[in-house]
C-alpha cells in the first residue's frame, strides 16, 4: 500500500533525501489529508503566510478537533511559560524586543561581531582535539559541542560550569530526537530531570547576575528596565532555555549539513580552502539547499483564510514546508543544484516575518567560521558513509553522525 505524502515526510526511511517527496507535494500547493494539518509547500504561499497576522504560533488557538502528528504533548511537569517562539503579538513582540536589546542592533550592535575572536578560538580548540584523523565523527567531535559552548559564553555561564550545560543540552536534544528503540518513560524522565536541573541552575545564575551584573547577555536581561519593563524570573528562564535549545539544534544541523554538502562538492570545498570569504555565500546557499529546519509545524489559523483557492478553516493546523519552498522551481532556477554563486537567494531557511530566526546573525557567523576552518585544516577529507545515519526528527533534519576520514590535520 502506498504511503500518503504526510506519512512519507514523517517516515525516517526518507530522511536522507526528502526532496523528491517535496516535489510531489508542490503539485498540490495546499495538501490536506483526513482531518490532519494543511501542508503548504510552495515558496510564495509560504512566504505570504509567514507574514500573515491571521496565522498564530500559540497552540491555545488550535481547534480541539484539529489533528497534528507533530503537535507537542502537554508538559504538565514544566512550570515554565512558553518562550516567545510560541506566542503571538503583543506578548511575542514585548519579549522579543527585550531579548534583542542585549543581542543585536540598534542597542547592542557589536554583540555578535565582537565574538569573532572567541568563535575562532573555540573552533580551533575543537579541531585541535579531534585526535585520529582516520575516523572523525564531525557531529560528536565538532558541530555538536561548538554551539553549546558559544551559547554558554553568550549568556555568561562560568567556564567551570560549561560541562554541565553540555550534559543538559545532550539530554534535551535526545528528547527532541527520540530513539525508537529506547524506553519512552526513561527518556521522558531524563528530559524532565534535565529541564529541572537546568531551570534551577539558571534561576541561581540569574539571581547572582542581578546582584553582580557583568557584560554578558544574561546580566543585561536580568537587570534591564526599559520601556517594556523588566522580565520576570520565569520569563527569563523561558527565554534562556529557548536560546539554548533553539540556538543549539539548528546550528548543529546547519554546520553538519554544510560539511556533508561540501564533501559531496569537492570543487566548492577546494574554493573555500583557497578563499575563506566564500563562506558567506556558501552558508546562504546552504540555508536554501539543505536548511536545518525543514518545516514549521504548530501554526494555527485565526480565521478562515483562502490559499490557492482552498479555504483553510479557523483553528486548523498548518505546516509550512520551508525546505520545499526553497526548492520551488517557480522561484529558483535549477533549484536542486547547489550553487554558491547563485545571485538571487532570498531563501526561507531562517524563516521570515515576526518569527524569523532570532539567532540568525550568530548562526551564520558560527557556520562561516566552522566550515572555513574545517576546509582549511582537514587534509583531503572524504566521507566514510554516504548517506550518513540521520536523526529521527523530521523538523530539525540533520545527520546523527557524520563519519569523515582525512590524511591529517593542518596547524
3D structure, described in words:
This protein is of the alpha+beta class and 411 residues long. It has a single domain, classed as Cytochrome p450 (Orthogonal Bundle), CATH 1.10.630. Helices cover 45% and strands 9% of the residues. The chain has 15 helices and 12 strands. It has a 5-stranded mixed sheet with strand order 1-2-8-5-3, with helices on one face. A 3-stranded antiparallel sheet has the order 4-11-10. The protein has a two-stranded antiparallel sheet with strand order 6-7. Helix 11 packs across helix 13. It is globular. The mean pLDDT is 90. Belongs to the cytochrome P450 family. Pfam families: p450. This is Cytochrome P450.
The CATH class label is Mainly Alpha
Number of helices: 15
Widest beta sheet: strand line-up: 1-2-8-5-3
Q: Separation of termini?
A: 55 Å
* Uncertain stretches of 5 or more adjacent residues: none
Pfam families: p450 (PF00067)
Protein name: Cytochrome P450
Family: Belongs to the cytochrome P450 family.
InterPro entries: Cyt_P450, Cyt_P450_B, Cyt_P450_sf
Amino acid at each position: 500500500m502506498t504511503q500518503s505524502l504526510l506519512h512519507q515526510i514523517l517516515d525516517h526511511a526518507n530522511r536522507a533525501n526528502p526532496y523528491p517527496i517535496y516535489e510531489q507535494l508542490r503539485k498540490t500547493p495546499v495538501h490536506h489529508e483526513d482531518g490532519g494539518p494543511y501542508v503548504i509547500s510552495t515558496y510564495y504561499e509560504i512566504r505570504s503566510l509567514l507574514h500573515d497576522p491571521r496565522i498564530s504560533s500559540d497552540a491555545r488557538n488550535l481547534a480541539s478537533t484539529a489533528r497534528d502528528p507533530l503537535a507537542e504533548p502537554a508538559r504538565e511537569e514544566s512550570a515554565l511559560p512558553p518562550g516567545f517562539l510560541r506566542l503571538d503579538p503583543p506578548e511575542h513582540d514585548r519579549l522579543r524586543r527585550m531579548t534583542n536589546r542585549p543581542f543585536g542592533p540598534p542597542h547592542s550592535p557589536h554583540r555578535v561581531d565582537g565574538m569573532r575572536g572567541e568563535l575562532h578560538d573555540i573552533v580551533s580548540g575543537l579541531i585541535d582535539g579531534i585526535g585520529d584523523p582516520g575516523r572523525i565523527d564531525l557531529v560528536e567531535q565538532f558541530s555538536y559541542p561548538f554551539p553549546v559552548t558559544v551559547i554558554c559564553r553568550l549568556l555568561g555561564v562560568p567556564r567551570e560550569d560549561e560541562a554541565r550545560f553540555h550534559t543538559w543540552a545532550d539530554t534535551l536534544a535526545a528528547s527532541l530526537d527520540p530513539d525508537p528503540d529506547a524506553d519512552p518513560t526513561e527518556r521522558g524522565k531524563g528530559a524532565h530531570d534535565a529541564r529541572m536541573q537546568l531551570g534551577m541552575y539558571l534561576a541561581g545564575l540569574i539571581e547572582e547576575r542581578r546582584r553582580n551584573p557583568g557584560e554578558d547577555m544574561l546580566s543585561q536581561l536580568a537587570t534591564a528596565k526599559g520601556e517594556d519593563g523588566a522580565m520576570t524570573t520565569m520569563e527569563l528562564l523561558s527565554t534562556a532555555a529557548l536560546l539554548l535549545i533553539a540556538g543549539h539544534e539548528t546550528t548543529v544541523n546547519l554546520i553538519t549539513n554544510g560539511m556533508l554538502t561540501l564533501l559531496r562538492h569537492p570543487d566548492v570545498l577546494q574554493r573555500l580552502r583557497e578563499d575563506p570569504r566564500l563562506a558567506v555565500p556558501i552558508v546562504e546557499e546552504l540555508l536554501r539547499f539543505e536548511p536545518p529546519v525543514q518545516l514549521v509545524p504548530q501554526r494555527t489559523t485565526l480565521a478562515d483564510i483562502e490559499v490557492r483557492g482552498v479555504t483553510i478553516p479557523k483553528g486548523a493546523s498548518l505546516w509550512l514546508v520551508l525546505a520545499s519552498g526553497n526548492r520551488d522551481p517557480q522561484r529558483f532556477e535549477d533549484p536542486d543544484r547547489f550553487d554558491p554563486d547563485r545571485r538571487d537567494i532570498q531563501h526561507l531557511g531562517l524563516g521570515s516575518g515576526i518569527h524569523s530566526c532570532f539567532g540568525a546573525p550568530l548562526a551564520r557567523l558560527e557556520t562561516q567560521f566552522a566550515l572555513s576552518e574545517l576546509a582549511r585544516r582537514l587534509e583531503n577529507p572524504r566521507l566514510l558513509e554516504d548517506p550518513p545515519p540521520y536523526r529521527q526528527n523530521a523538523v530539525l533534519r540533520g545527520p546523527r553522525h557524520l563519519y569523515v576520514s582525512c590524511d591529517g590535520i593542518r596547524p
